[in-house]
Design a protein that fits this description.
heterodimer; A: alpha/beta; eight-stranded mixed β-sheet; four-stranded antiparallel β-sheet; about 35% helix; globular; B: alpha+beta; Ubiquitin-like (UB roll); 2 domains; five-stranded mixed β-sheet; about 30% helix; binds flavin-adenine dinucleotide; binds iron/sulfur cluster
């Protein structure tokens, strides 16, 4: 065992982690970033379409007069009024200078004809409280996330931030009611390292791998969330998991909403642009939950292409131009334009489907994409543990793993990247301040004893079931029973399945690799434990919320219930064992009220029915 | 179809005979549309959990899984059975970096070269007074578009005979990264970078063998980018911001 000491340790090197690391170190803290992947492999790099900010840059001859307050409104409405309005306000206001700051760091945004940052349309983003579509998504072709990740990593190198690459955090350390650090396994050697720190920030990303069809990387297994949950931190709003409408059929690889932002349309087997029925005003650019449900309805009604479970997404210039003309818009696109604006999308389709989107439509289906829920924090990325916003000193979270909650029940496209930079930056600043005066609380005695014992057990696993068998079964039950449409019986089925799988996982797993160096066999099995925990808490939170709101859509409770349920779910894992091998119960708390501060000043922010 | 996958294995913790060796695995029910990564996963999950390799995104954008597949550097997640043809494939680690376990190589020398070329934006002028973005024309932005796509997968550098021969050569990927900044009109450190690349282990180790360009999974015109940097060293940058006399060119003859 090795022990390191830093003022602050950032766990995760995606957009949120790197932004926090930059700001904490600029603020004078001695910082280390610990990441299980090389930083540039983080999933932020796959984000495609754009980062939202009300820059109001003129696009063509459209003046695009945008304001942060419109962005805040769209965010709150998109979130089906479960977003904390103070957080949505911070998000929208600070988006503007965060994006400008990224440009100042060298991020190569596409440019308008005036040399300003180019912006495109995205689902749910409007001007003047829903009046018309806004150009708000700032982009670098369709690799915006790649450019953000590269730029932030470059800046970290410039500022000599210390990295521990391929260190896998497996535990968080608490003492005297304070978070005092984390424990990681060095992948190359298998050695345990303790990172003793005044502040630890979790930025470990999402857990799309709970479902079988997902846009998420194989490595997105929710480790940070699982680890802190096992140490008593609640998970907030886990029932709200977003299915992105357009994943490549079967593979789940994402096709950015930017395709529809550039004029692409969804088409069923009758050649019908079906979104006209579901969202007459903004059509294909309604918010994601709405579009994903519409696709499922089409499939259910037998309108899938060739009778199968997919519909078409069409970006062929002739199709797009026809609809643009019909809508009375002056914009027209051609093949070159599509190649320039969406090069990676074309590449994915050509590589994985053998389909050329400028000639043929793309077969798509909804894909598990984004966790609105996660570790509850306030707007300074400080982790809070109850309905009274009690802060857990020393623990921070930002990015997808955190729940601020600026996204409420459904995140708008482009708002995750904003979340990363805005709340990553706030977290970094807060940490820099905190460590100036906070004492270094000592480590608990034998900090790695429990986790080492746990890994020893895992290493010796000698049962009959391979991890992938359990994983496949978990993903299948989550996809079928805790997906786009939900109801009591199916969710109960998922909970029962998951409990049985957990049992098999604990009692009957087999591990092949007993070595120390690069033992990805054990770590994958350990990651599966995280996924099982998060799947279970998701299903339990979902069955408990008896309404339909945003991404949580119930056939047995079709209405939103603002009277009783304008509250966040807090789910506590209750178990004697802090690790995967315990059999936990979950206690649900529904007392954390949604912040409605904007609605107090402005009628338009009051919850009302959502129409697009 | 049935497919035989022949994999170069190495176990650093082997009790005896710590040498790399080949091992064959047979998979049934393989689809034409399966990625090589899918096959590796199936082998790891169904047959032999000790098989070790890196991967994350599984769709060619994170740069984790560059390997030598049938003798050519590729991303395992971006090459499908139908692209390879046949039912026998051979997978080995990329060359020129120390092998740590099976398909996992030590990436540190690669990232060290990356860090040598100042791979970060430098502009010490105050930001625009209106607090907004620096302006850049679409043409100027286009000038370095190609090299912004790099995902640092190392497929180019580890396909380069000059790099195999001399690991001190910064390699194509580092030059691609430098190119991204040298040709960005907003950046101010082109001169420093050109001076670094004019050193003996810089661009002149490139003998235009052209392995790198076809190896690049992002279809970056790597050789062309290297050529543009060479030209900038000899003639100054295209915008004339940097004159040739400012650059200490040292041509290394083989
Ligand atoms: C295909 C795709 C496209 C998207 N496009 C957009 C878009 O256009 N606009 C938008 O706003 N959002 C988009 N999103 C969403 C957005 O990209 C993600 O939500 C966001 O990037 C998450 O960033 P993050 O920093 O929280 O985590 P990530 O970037 O996922 O990084 C997680 C980090 O944590 C580390 N880590 C994880 N577990 C451990 C552990 N146990 N120990 C140590 N380190 C660990 C990893 O190594 C990694 O560095 C997209 C998402 C996907 C999947
Ligand atoms: S230039 Fe291409 S091959 Fe080389 S590291 Fe970058 S993406 Fe990989
Ligand atoms: S796994 Fe990301 S590039 Fe292959």
């Amino acid at each position: 065992m090795k022990i390191h000491q830093f003022d602050a340790v950032i766990v995760g090197a995606g957009g949120a982690g790197l932004m926090a690391a930059l700001y904490a170190s600029k603020g004078g803290a001695n910082v280390a970033v610990v990441s299980k992947l090389y930083p540039t492999r983080s999933h932020t790099g796959t984000a495609q379409g754009g980062i939202g900010a009300a820059l109001g840059n003129k696009i063509g001859d459209d003046p695009n007069e945008d304001k942060p307050i419109y962005h805040a409104f769209d965010t709150v409405k998109g979130g089906d009024y479960l977003a904390d309005q103070n957080a949505a306000k911070v998000l929208a206001e600070e988006a503007v200078d965060s994006v400008i700051e990224l440009e100042h760091m060298g991020l190569p945004f596409d440019r308008t004809s005036e040399g300003r940052i180019s912006q495109r349309r995205f689902g749910g983003h409007t001007l003047n409280f829903g009046e018309k579509l806004a150009y708000r998504a700032c982009h670098a072709a369709d690799r915006t996330g790649h450019m953000i990740l590269q730029t932030l990593y470059q800046q970290c190198i410039k500022n000599n931030v210390r990295f521990f690459d391929e260190f896998h955090v497996v535990d968080v350390l608490m003492n005297q009611g304070v978070c005092v650090g984390s424990t990681a396994i060095d992948l190359a050697t298998g050695e345990f390292h303790v990172f003793h720190a005044k502040a630890t920030l979790f930025a470990t990303g999402g857990w799309g791998r709970c479902w079988s069809v997902t846009s998420n990387a194989v490595s997105l297994t929710g480790d940070g969330a699982a680890v802190v949950m096992r140490r008593g931190v609640p998970m907030q709003d886990m029932e709200f998991y977003q299915f992105h409408p357009t994943g490549i059929f079967k593979l789940g690889i994402l096709i950015t909403e930017g395709v529809r932002g550039e004029g692409g349309v969804l088409i069923n087997r009758h050649g019908e642009r079906f979104m006209e029925k579901y969202a007459p005003k903004v059509k294909d650019l309604a918010s994601r939950d709405v579009v994903s449900r519409a696709i499922y309805m089409e499939l259910r009604n037998g309108n899938g292409i060739k009778g199968k479970d997919y519909v078409h997404l069409d970006i062929r210039p002739e199709t797009v131009n026809r609809y643009l003309a019909e809508a009375g818009e002056s914009k027209r696109i051609d093949r070159d334009y599509v190649e320039k604006k969406l090069p990676d999308i074309l590449d994915f389709c050509r590589t994985y489907l053998g389909v050329d989107p400028v000639k043929e439509p793309m077969p798509i289906q909804p894909t598990a994409h984004y966790a609105m829920g996660g570790i509850p924090t306030n707007v300074d990325a400080e982790v809070v543990t109850d309905e009274n916003w009690t802060i857990l000193p020393g623990m921070y979270a930002a990015g997808e793993v955190a729940c601020v909650s600026c996204h409420g029940a459904n995140r708008l496209g482009t708002n995750s990247l904003v979340d990363l930079v805005v709340f990553g930056r706030r977290g970094g600043k807060a940490i820099a301040n905190f460590v100036k005066t906070a004492p270094m609380t000592p480590l608990p005695a034998n900090p790695t004893r429990q986790i080492e014992a746990e890994f020893d057990r895992l290493r010796r696993s000698n049962g009959k079931t391979k991890a992938y068998v359990i994983r496949d079964a978990m993903q299948k039950t989550m996809m079928e029973n805790v997906g786009v449409f939900r109801e009591e019986k199916a969710m109960q089925q998922a909970i029962d399945d998951l409990r049985e799988l957990r049992e098999r996982y604990v009692r009957d797993l087999v591990i092949d690799d007993r070595g120390s160096k690069f033992n990805t066999d054990i770590l994958e099995a350990w990651e599966l434990g995280c996924l099982l925990d998060l799947a279970e808490v998701t299903a339990i939170s979902a069955i408990n919320r008896k309404e339909s709101r945003g991404a949580h859509s119930r056939e047995d409770y079709k209405k939103r219930d603002d009277e009783h349920l304008l509250v966040h779910t807090l789910a506590y894992r209750e178990c004697d064992e802090p690790y995967y091998s315990g059999t936990p119960d979950y206690r649900l708390n529904m007392d954390k009220k949604v912040d409605l501060s904007l609605a107090l000043e402005d009628e338009r922010f009051k919850p009302k029915e959502r129409v697009y | 179809m049935d497919v035989t996958v022949r994999i170069r294995r190495f176990n650093p913790e082997a009790q005896n005979n710590k040498k790399p060796y080949w091992q064959e695995f047979t998979l049934t029910n393989v689809d034409e549309t399966d990625r090589v990564l899918d096959l590796l996963h199936r082998i790891k999950w169904e047959q032999d959990g000790t098989l070790s390799f890196r991967r994350s995104c599984a769709h060619g954008v994170c740069g984790s899984d560059a390997m030598r597949i049938n003798g050519i550097n590729r991303l395992a997640c971006k090459i499908l059975m139908r692209d390879l043809g046949g039912t026998k494939i051979q997978v080995e680690p990329i060359l020129g970096l120390p092998v740590l376990k099976d398909l996992i190589v030590d990436m540190e020398p690669f990232f060290a070269h990356y860090r040598e070329v100042m791979p970060f934006f430098v502009n010490d002028d105050p930001v625009p007074a209106d607090g907004r973005e620096r302006l850049q024309t679409q043409e100027d932005r286009e000038r370095f578009d190609d090299t912004t796509k790099c995902i640092l997968c190392a497929a180019c550098t580890t396909s380069c005979p000059s790099f195999w021969a001399n690991g001190k050569y910064v390699g194509p990927a580092a030059i691609v990264q430098a190119h991204r900044f040298i040709f960005d009109t907003r950046d101010q450190a082109a001169l420093e970078r050109l001076n670094i690349l004019a050193e003996p282990n810089g661009v002149w180790r490139c003998r235009t063998i052209y392995n790198c360009t076809p190896a690049c999974p992002r279809e970056i015109e790597v050789t062309r980018a290297i050529g543009e940097v060479k030209l900038a060293i000899q003639k100054g940058t295209p915008h004339g911001i940097i004159q040739v006399h400012e650059i200490k060119e040292r041509v290394v003859n083989s």
